[in-house]
Design a protein that fits this description.
single chain, mainly alpha, Recoverin, domain 1, 4 helices, 56% helix, 4% strand, rod-shaped
Length: 91
């Protein structure tokens, strides 16, 4: 089993760009993984680099899908010449 690199909260905040309160809100909403106590009797909590990488990858893919969907939408489509003539005749 490979050793997983741990990241403390400061590293997670830097990786996400979130404030402290947003960080904990995302955890409580299930939108970011909960930390892991390496020592059950201790207070220190850590996240793992692979969790951060997976989160960032999912966010990047989600943003790319949203961007692609936005460019696929028709923009202020101009009517075809036949449609334009029908619209003018109806008025």
């Amino acid at each position: 089993m490979a050793v997983r690199i741990s990241a403390r909260k400061k590293r997670c905040l830097a990786a996400t760009g979130w404030s402290n309160s947003t960080f904990y809100k995302k955890i409580s909403e299930g939108k970011f993984p909960k930390g892991t106590k390496l020592d059950p009797d201790g207070r220190a909590v850590t996240w793992f680099e692979d969790q951060l990488e997976a989160f960032q990858k999912a966010a990047t893919e989600r943003q790319a899908a949203e961007d692609q969907a936005a460019t696929a939408l028709p923009r202020d489509r101009k009517p075809a010449p036949a449609e334009a003539a029908e619209n003018q005749a109806a008025t």
